[in-house]
Amino acid sequence: MPRTMTTGLLMLSLLCLTLLLPETALAACLKCHDEQEAPLAFQHRTQGLACTQCHGVSAAHEDKPRVSPDQTFRAGAAGEAASAPCLHCHQDAERRFWPTSDHGQADVACSSCHAIHQPERNDPGEPASTKCESCHAAEAARLRYPVTHPLQAGSMACSDCHSPHGNEGSLLPTDKCVRCHQDKNGPFLFEHEPVTEDCALCHEPHGSTLPALLNNRPPFLCQSCHMAASHPSRMPVAAGGGDLNMTGKSCLNCHQQVHGSNHPSGARFTR
Amino acid sequence: MKLRSFVSLGLILLAQQVMAEAADDELFDDFALDDEPAASTPVMLNRLSLSISAISAANHQFSRFSDDDNRGMRLSADLLLQSRPGNISSQWRLAGARLGRQDQQLSLQWQTARGYHFDASYVALPWHGNDSGQSPFTGTSVLQLPVNWTPAVNASGFDSTLNRRDIHTGSQRRTLSLHFSQPLGSGLRISADGQFEEKKGVLPGGFAIYTNAANPQAVVLPLPVDFKTTDVSSRLDYQSSQLTLTGEGRYRQFRNRHDSISWQNPYQSGLGTSVDYPAGWGTLATAPDYDQYQWLAGGSYRFTDQSLLAFTAARAETRQDTDLLPYTANPLLTQPALPVADTDDALQTDKLDLRWLKPLRRNLKLTLGYRYQARENQASVWQWANLRGEGGDVQAPELALNNRPLSREKDQYNAALNWRGPKGISVTLEYDYAETYRNYAAVTDTEEDRWELSARLPGGPAASHRLSIRTSNLAGSTYEWSRSYFQEISLNLINQTPADQRWTNHPLLRQYHVANNHKTAVSWTSTWTPTTDWSLQGTVTSDHVYFDKSELGLTETRTWQASVNAGYQVDDSYRLTVWADYRDDFGSQTGRDFNGGLNKPANRVTAPLPEGSDPARNYVTDQNHDTLTLGFDTQWQMSERLQWSTSYSHQLSDEDYQVSQSGARDLADVTLPTVRYRMQRLTNALNWQINDRLSLDAAHIWFRAADNDWQWQDSSATDKVLQSGQRNTNEALHRILVNVNYEF
């Protein structure tokens, strides 16, 4: 046989093998695992990802299905090993800090929060807040308080304020809040120190029984820093003559501009 | 020879394929299956739901973020359309929720195999506050009294029934978001985002005209909210096997439709005809317009699989040059000239975050981190005339005030050692040191040390435990009386005040977030799944902060919280979950009370000390706030096509305040009335899968919420504040919802 024909047959064989092998690999999995019941998430399908790229070659599993694949992602799987296949591709800016993050250090696996096979949703499985609640019970309990952010309403997610992958990005403590509460950003002519430092000094962002997510009620909240001098400050039921002005909005009956004032007469945050 | 080799190779490959197919039967022997798996029914990816709901009563607590605040019926639709998973060239998804309601959402996602990605979403978010308040004022940003208004000395003298209109406390936020990204090849990806948001509504605000605290003339008014915010950003990412780099630019524009809010003084209580009703007017400045530019750069380099260096750096510059309002909008008062027409200076914030992860030994890793945060307000300092509360002409020059452009710099160093032991044990020991400098603060420098030990401990095949212990110590520099308050006022006034009367900056005074303190926090979580039927999780946390050098202000806080969640699969058709959470917050703070009525002259000397420095005037407030939440969820698969679920939650919260004299013997101890909040919700729902495509949901919710906050009970009878008469929450309602769902 001429040399060109030999080479051509070899090339053809290799080509067939190249085309058949991933399909063969996929076909081997699909003999038992119905693709319709566990479609890959949105982006993964368009990338043409094969099962073995995450689960490993799994030759033993193919021979005896009772043997687990090389890589599984069941609950309780060691985080580092279970996350390795994901991090092989997902090395972008969002996951840059993952190994040094609190979740990474605590051995949380990607599959603890992200579900890649979801028949109902064809996206990579943006984790709902319920996923966070399964570990962060204390914060989850506060989400049930009367005054909260709209997480339970489905209009916000924990990841709108927190970075589960560890990348806090450009955010200062107050920056997270002013992304939505833009009017509190200022800068104001007269600034209130704790407002420029950290909103959580006065507010409990997960949930409160007090209006505006305060962590204490006025006047006591204000009196944790401010002397009650030259001022109505005694509660109306206190002996010695209380002050009715402490009812209603309390200190904010007059000091409305507690987040800062841009008025020339606003040094006391009344303007 | 060569030809025979290739033919042999081909026959071998063919034989392998045939043998592989023949081995299929053996695969299923292990599962004792007689046949291959039956062909499954195709998954229904698309869905249309039509909903009708009815609610029995107007409310604000139940419908806080929804469209159910008014009694009546509503129609809406949910929609989900998406491409088939088999189409790998592109995928798209269109979803709409609660279409036709004030809380509707709509999103579109589209992605191609080449990596083009486009997202668009629209979210409408209502917020409902307490709607029971009323006001006699009319207008939006200029609030005027009715022509037949009768003034009075005190709020109790007003006609409470006159011309009142409802204050519809609440807001509506509408946000349109767009995202586009595409790969550029060679590991590069570009993306762009845009977000356009509008927020409108009304909030109750307090407005006061006064000359000193003894004679406030205040009103609670509807404060209009009308904001527009535009955010745009563009980003370039590079990613290779070892290196990632990011560069991003962001711009934000915030515009407030209302520069100011003006209101007419309803009082006639002797401040003078220029200030009293009907001539007296006050003006408040609203949030200023601003523009913000932000730059961000980040990257990481992976030396090995276990070792990496990562950084993020960012700078934001915010400018607002809104024209300043005059000292007063009242033309009858003296109008001094402003020192400057607008501030037009930048607020600059910087952040740098560096982290280095290095393996020391097998299963032992070290992380070192450095974080720098800075806030610099570049505004100048000017002297502002003291036109106190628009209650009269401008005060004497020595009472002028300075603005304080606050700046802060923080250096934070962090080291963490992480060990992975056998059987899934993970232990991390972390140390953090932060040093912060603040200008214009009575305490300029603070240092904080923090240690944290956290561990994940497996408890056998069915259990795991997580423990965290954290302790920190904040130390502040000497409390400097010359800073903070006295930097606000003119040098003349400082010089006029005797040193022994500069009590407001006594070294033992408050300052809360910069005060010396010790913090200890402990947290324990256990999860146990003894069988596939049972799941249990319990969490206990404790937090204690002791302000060891604070005599006044907050001196101590203690919090502890316990949560438990238990789930039990009774049988194949029935599951029950119960949960409970209890939280207790305690705080103690010291105040100093003065003689002299409402206008307490702290500088007045009651021998041997000015009152402001006299510990014999102290009182202590102990606050206790505990909240108990209980609930259960059940799901009962009644038949193959019928499912019933019931859930119930009950929350009870109590706030107690005890005021005790601690030196001020003329004060009597007093226990303030307990503020109790109770909220219950009972939901019963039925899901009927009529056939493979059609299903019906029906749900009934009973909701009850009530509180007895004494600060709002009879709040219309306050002394110098014309309140809105807002009542405490007291809601009881039923909501019925029926959905018809069609999948295709």
Defining traits:
heterodimer; A: 271 residues; mainly alpha; 11 helices; 30% helix; elongated; B: 744 residues; mainly beta; 26-stranded antiparallel β-barrel; 3-stranded mixed β-sheet; 4 helices; globular
Structure explained in plain terms:
The complex is a heterodimer of chains A (271) and B (744). With 271 residues, chain A is mainly α. Chain A has a domain at 175-253. Chain A contains eleven helices and no strands. Residues 14-22 and 119-126 of chain A have low confidence and may be disordered. Chain B has a 26-stranded antiparallel β-barrel. Chain B is mainly β. In chain B, strand 31 (618-637) and strand 32 form a beta hairpin. Chain B starts with a helix and ends with a strand. Among the domains of chain B are: 1-36; 131-146 and 157-175 and 186-211 and 221-348 and 355-407, no CATH class. The interface between A and B is large, with 123 and 200 residues.
Radius of gyration of chain B: 33 Å
Number of strands of chain B: 37
**What's the assembly state of these chains?**
heterodimer
Gross morphology of chain A is: elongated
**Average of per-residue pLDDT values of chain A:** 75
Topology order of chain A in helix (H) and strand (E) letters:
HHHHHHHHHHH
Largest sheet of chain B: 26 strands, antiparallel, barrel
Helix content range of the residues of chain A, please?
25-40%
Structural class of chain A: mainly alpha
Mind sketching the topology for me?
The complex is a heterodimer of chains A (271) and B (744).
Chain A: H1 3-30, H2 42-46, H3 52-55, H4 59-63, H5 79-89, H6 102-105, H7 129-133, H8 137-142, H9 175-178, H10 193-197, H11 220-223
Chain B: H1 2-22, H2 24-29, E1 47-55, E2 72-82, E3 90-99, E4 105-112, E5 117-128, E6 134-135, E7 142-143, E8 165-166, E9 170-185, E10 188-209, E11 217-239, E12 243-256, E13 260-264, E14 281-285, E15 290-302, E16 308-320, E17 345-361, E18 364-377, E19 383-384, E20 401-402, E21 408-420, E22 426-438, E23 445-458, E24 463-476, H3 485-488, H4 491-496, E25 517-528, E26 534-546, E27 553-571, E28 574-592, E29 605-606, E30 609-610, E31 618-637, E32 642-661, E33 670-671, E34 675-689, E35 694-707, E36 721-722, E37 730-743
